[in-house]
Amino acid sequence: MESTNAFIGKPEKPTDPEILAALGPSADAWTQFIEWMAQEHSVTIQEWKSLAPKYGWSVRLKVKSRNIVYLGPCTGSFQVSFVLGDKAMNAARRGQFPRAVSQVIAEAPHYAEGTGLRLVVHGSKDLAPIRKLAEIKLAN
Questions:
Q1: What whole-number distance in Å separates Cα of residue 54 and Cα of residue 50?
Q2: By C-alpha distance, which of 39, 37, 28, 101 is closest to 69?
């Protein structure tokens, strides 16, 4: 299910209060995931980007110059995107995931830079597979 970025048309980076307000009920999951990445995996670099106002804003969580995961704030939810290389995709295919996540993995488009996965998080209950994919990305 696609969600629309909450900051389409916004020329400058959204503030923390704006992000939390847009996320609504998913704000706790957003904060939990970012804190988990920092505390458990030392992924502490956050790089906000907007390709153009018509696309809105997203944050990349990085280790040095390596992009690990992209988070796009939406209204009431957020998108989580990964670009996985072949080794990471093979590990993801072997992983135990909920049916909907397994389907996203099976149908993910392949690009020159890797295979793109995009999932929507509505709340904390959606974080377990996201964390598992982040660990796969970090390990490969």
A1: 9
A2: 37
Q: What pLDDT is attached to residue 118?
A: 96
Domain that holds residue 120: 16-139
- Cα 80–Cα 82–Cα 85 angle in degrees, nearest 5: 170
Q: Are 72 and 8 in contact (CB under 8 A)?
A: no
Q: How many distinct structural domains can be found in the chain?
A: 1
What pLDDT digit, counting tens, does each position of 125-138 carry?
999 999 999 999 99
- For residue 44, which phi and psi values (nearest 5 degrees)? -115, -10
CA distances, 97 to each of 91, 107, 126 (Å): 12, 14, 11
Category of 29 on φ-ψ map: left (φ > 0), alpha (ψ -120 to 50) or beta: alpha
Contacts of 31 (CB under 8 A, 6+ apart): none
Tell me how far apart the alpha carbons of residues 125 and 140 are, in angstroms, rounded to a whole number.
25
**pLDDT at residue 3, rounded to an integer:** 81
**For residue 93, what is the domain's CATH number?**
3.90.1150
Express each pLDDT in 10-30 by its tens digit. 999 999 999 999 999 999 999
